[in-house]
Amino acid sequence: MGWIKAAVILLKTQIALGVLAMPTALQSVGAVPGALVIFGIGLITSWAGYVVGTFKRNHPEVYSMADVGGVLAGKMGHEVFTAIYAAFMISLTGVALLPITIAFNTLSDHATCTLVWMVLAAVVCCALASIQTLNKVSLIGSVGIACILIAIFTLLIAVGVQERPATAPPAPAPWFKDMVAFKKANFWDGVNAMSTAVAGLCGTPAFFSVISEMKNPKDYNKSLAVCQTIVVSTYVTVAVVVYYFCGQYLASPALGSAGPLLKKVCYGIALPGLLATGILYCHIAAKLVFVRLMRKSEHLTAHTKTHWSVWLATTSVCMLLGFILANSIPFFGNLIVLVCALFGTLMCMQFTGWMWLYDNWGRRKESPDWKFWIAAGLNWLLIVFGTFLMISGVVSSCLGIRDSFRAGTIGRPFSCADNSK
Predict the structure, then answer these.
(1) How many other C-beta atoms lie within 10 A of the C-beta of residue 73?
(2) Which domains does the chain have, with CATH numbers?
(3) CB 279 within 8 A of CB 125
(4) Interior CA angle at 225 toward 224 and 229, to 5°?
């Protein structure tokens, strides 16, 4: 592929569920710090994407994060990186199921138990994720991203013209918007804002496979620049506009912030995209596990009964694990922050810093110039900051989950309660 098509595919890997949580970063710390946090994390992940490109050129045999583990730490590293990436994709599968159930409840006015909608979403996503050709699954993903983007921009229009947000007191009761440029936030609010930004910008591990398909890998930096510019601009715009018009009545996912009618319109448009996201994450997770299990067997490529039995069992187990996670922690904002703080920072920050140091740290004995030391310092800082954000982000999300359960926002795990309110 050329660099323009590569930029489009990079966009597909970045713009997913994270955009639905992005306005909450501003709600946590205020409009100005929140926008700066998104921009700052965008710069960090842009550097991570640049390192991915240089590492790929230095190690052409690398096709995925699993291969990166093999280069950095041998056979054991390959196994560990495979397990971490598969766990990340399975967790995101669970995250994807939550907004699907919210969409079903919104469109049907909670016509049935939320758990029923969750089972339906899991069955549909699992069935389509079992399509083995990644090209066909990618087509589903393309339609999905288009639906989510259309729904988001419909939301931007909706919040601008609506009388009041869906979560505000119903008419004719008055409502007052508490929107501030700078909020008196505590430490955990800041951590939550940074972790939310990571949730929308942690698609970097998928960049390896894009570079592998480019006609001229040297054009990758142009694709990366276009991708990151559009993604960060979109995220900041969506976050600022939605927060400005909704204030403290911001919903999570953000699509629920529109008025009652337009809320249904937004979720109706986004539903195919939400389903496509769950399908894609489940497929990637299952493919990682399947190849690992069958890589030394003739059944890996031969369409035998064993091949299909293991493949269908793999997609089913991956979806089942995601289903259990989504029902155990039924809070979209807190769950996506937890998953991306735990896995997203690890793969976009610590691992990226390690990749650069693996290729370049030996040069310190060759009288390197000041540019080397700046780059080395940035990558050591990336590892330290990523570790800090991973630990603090997990703690912050766990505190948020605890508080949500105490407040009875959803009720309890595996609940039938309406989660669209």
Answers:
(1) 15
(2) 3-407 (1.10.4160.10)
(3) yes
(4) 115
